[in-house]
Amino acid sequence: MKHVIIGAGVAGVEAAKTIRALDERADILMISADTQIHSRCMLHKFLAGERDEKSLDFTEEDFFEKYNVQWKSGVRVIQVCPQEKEIVLETKERVGYDRLLLANGSDSCIPPVGELRKASNVYGLRNLCDAQAIVKEAEQAENVLIIGSGLVGLDAAYGLLERGKKITIVEMAPQILPVQLDAHGAKSYQRLFEQAGVRFLLGRKACQAQCGADGKIHEVILDNEEKAACDMIIVAAGVRASVGYLDGSGILCDRGVSVDSYLKTSQQDIYAAGDITGLSGIWPNAADQGRIAGKNMCGVPTEYTDRFAMKNTINFFGLLSLCVGRICQEEGDEIVVCEDQRQYKRAIIKDGKIEGILLQGEISHAGTWQYLIKNQIDVSGIQKDIFKISYADFYRVGERGKYEWAV
Ligand SMILES: Cc1cc2nc3c(=O)[nH]c(=O)nc-3n(C[C@H](O)[C@H](O)[C@H](O)COP(=O)(O)OP(=O)(O)OC[C@H]3O[C@@H](n4cnc5c(N)ncnc54)[C@H](O)[C@@H]3O)c2cc1C
Fold first, then answer.
1. What's the cofactor (predicted)?
2. What residues flank ligand 1, with Cβ below 6 Å?
């Protein structure tokens, strides 16, 4: 059986390991545009100069030998032909497969504002090559403008602060980390970044940006006509599933490649895992999906059931946060908050069930929260402080003396 995996990120790597564990004779070929395996979550450490390229690798040193995986690196797949069971590389080489995994992630999205897409000093931060280009540009840049204050924007800021850059972040929402945190939780991070010298322009949109004679943008005009001067720009305003090369393949796409609960696409013998599915945009979910797709590719039917909730951990300046489930408040929600000097906790409850939890500072019992949210356990009968509940509140000793769920 020949398994071809497009992408050498965590989804592709985990799929390859799973396939090898289930079938020691399978041919496994990975193909990636990347020339080096690296953790995107660690790119800020590279920007900061705290890690070199080699130490971003998250696989064992002898990964390809150990798992007997072939790797074509530094080459893009430009077409998938399900009828012929072949893919086409940018070199025009055609590669056949029995089972194919699409695990090629997302692309940074540069909005069509002024000449942002044309300028030579504007970067996304997705791949190691982006980080390398940013470090090079930063050698001659003092003022860095970052558009977007999500995790990627703050990662970029965190890394470049270490290089002594002056950083301004423009964010169109009224708070930073608008997808991950509520306003109160986000404010704690804002303060920490401000103490480190970052300037935030919140509730503002970049509207105009023209290139100078050198092909670079030196100022961005905001929607209130304020001008933000810059020597380089990092755009961290979202990502898009990297599905462009699937045009004409018949593989259905929505926010990403559409998959069923077995991570199978609309075409025979083609699976998808990781950010390309648009199901999630975080590392642990991409890894899980890679493992599950690998099992299904080997004929071991396994469902992906973790579609329920967003999970995020955030750690800047030693302040740790964990969010599971929904963060935005909706009509009919009950919001329960607990705060002291060490921590901030906020739960969203609807119809007796917890739909979202944010833990900041102290993140113990995360597993309990995850369980309650995923399984939609009714907590309305619990007569105690919701932040003090534990598994014990849901267990009882059953007839045969064994623990079982009481709710
Ligand atoms: C700066 C940054 C910080 C992040 N921080 C966190 C964090 O703190 N916590 C967290 O949980 N998540 C974080 N994430 C998200 C996390 O990195 C992703 O969810 C994860 O990397 C997705 O893995 P993947 O295997 O689906 O795709 P990717 O890791 O994106 O890998 C895609 C692979 O496909 C290859 N590829 C792409 N197109 C082609 C093509 N046409 N042909 C061949 N190969 C191709 C690429 O070269 C790459 O090898 C961060 C992401 C970024 C960018």
1. FAD
2. 6-12, 31-34, 40-41, 43, 76-77, 103-105, 125-126, 151-152, 155, 242, 245, 274-275, 281-284, 286
Ordered alpha helix ranges (H), 39-94: 43-47, 63-66
Nearest CA to ligand 1 atom 49: 8
User: Hey, which of 18, 32, 59, 255 would you mutate to test ligand 1's pocket, going by the most ligand atoms within 8 Å of its Cβ?
Assistant: 32
Report pLDDT digits (tens) over 238-247.
999 999 999 9
C-alpha 156 to ligand 1 mean position (Å): 16
Q: Identify the CATH assignment for 122-235 out of 3.40.640.10, 3.40.50.10170, 3.50.50.60, 1.10.8.60.
A: 3.50.50.60
For the segment 16-27, what is each residue's pLDDT rounded down to a tens digit?
Answer: 999 999 999 999
In 10 A of CB 49, how many CB atoms? 11
pLDDT for 333-366, tens place per residue?
Answer: 999 999 998 999 999 999 989 999 999 998 888 8
Please give the backbone phi and psi of residue 122, each rounded to the nearest 5 degrees, phi first.
-115, 130
Quick one: 311-405 is in which CATH superfamily?
A: FAD/NAD-linked reductase, C-terminal dimerisation domain (3.30.390.30)
**Ligand 1 atom closest to Cα of 12?**
25
pLDDT band, residue 396 (cuts 50/70/90):
low
* Nearest C-alpha neighbor of 68 from the set 98, 23, 109, 134: 23
For the CA of 7, the nearest atom of ligand 1:
34
Count CA atoms closer than 13 A to 299's CA, side-chain side: 5
The fold for domain 2-107+239-297 equals FAD/NAD(P)-binding domain (3.50.50)
